[in-house]
Structure formats: C-alpha cells, structure tokens
# Entry
Amino acid sequence: MIWLNPDTVVEGPIVRELEGWLAAHPDVAVAGPRVLNGDGSVQPSARRFPGFSTALGGRSTWLTRRFPNNWFSRRNLLQRDGQHSAEVDWLAGSCLATRRDAFDRLGGLDESFFMYWEDADYCRRATALGYTCHYVPTSAVRHTGGASSAHNVVPSIRAFHRSAFRLFWKHAGAARMFAPLVWMGLRLRGEIKVRLR
# Structure
C-alpha cells in the first residue's frame, strides 16, 4: 500500500522502488522515499520519535530554521542529506509504503488523529510489534507542504498541537506524569504560532 499526499508530485518509480524494498525486507513495515521541497532541497522526512528534544529541534522549530545544523535538529531529523538508506524511527506520511499484512495487523491508521502525527503513531505501533521503518532515497517525491492547511491556518496550527499531545499521551507510558506540562507547553506553543502568523 502506498500513501501519497495530494500536494506531492512523484519523481521516479516510487511504487516499484518502495514495494521492491518491502518485498526484499520482510521485517520492514514502512518504507519512505526522499521527499523534496518545492525548490528541490531535501525535506527532513526521516525522523526520530518525538521526545523533549523535539521541542527545540523539530522540523518547524525556530532553532532548526535559524541554525539547521544544531545538535537538537541533527538528533531529530535524520538522513538530512537525502543520500543514504537507513533504519529510522518514523517517516513523514507525505509519501510512504506499508505492507498490507502490517496495516491489517495494526488496524490501520488511528482516526482519532486529525491531519497530523498519525504517521508517527503508525510507525511507533509498527515498531512495537517488532517491525522496522526504512528511509529509501532511490526515488523521490516533491512535496509542497501546507497545501491542506493554507486555507485554515489557525485551526490547522491548533490541530497540529492537539495531535502532538495525543501522540504523547498514547505512547508516553510512565512519562504521562508530565502530561500537564506537555499539554501546557504545546498549547502555549500553538497559541504563540497563531499570534505570529
């Protein structure tokens, strides 16, 4: 199965490459190609599961935009040169492939996520069952990004942060004791982004 956002343009034999990778690696549940921005630069689609360092080094943070080679961003955004295949924690859902048996075993995507973070949740659940996720840069898609949210910016920002908290709550385990702080931090970050837009 291939997932492809409507704001992507395929550049190369995506289906053949990703399905071939999955067929050759039965332990891999999710494979994703190199994702390019509109200007051709590599979009950091291969990532480490979110943690506290993601607040500083996530894809859309100020620190990543201003100083892209900082330690926090290097820790969270993997394979940023887009050249090498690698096992990663999760792959952005703009384009990825998953094997059907894994999808069925996982019960598909969790529909309680709205627009954001369902890809990270899916990959986390897959790895919990012993599967792996792989970045496969032998083919690419160009992803405009933000096309779905451009017409409803404020609701989209809030949905992003609500889904981020849902991901934390679902997978935090003992760290749930920090839930009030995480919720307040995400809520504050979201409202700051709303006011600065």
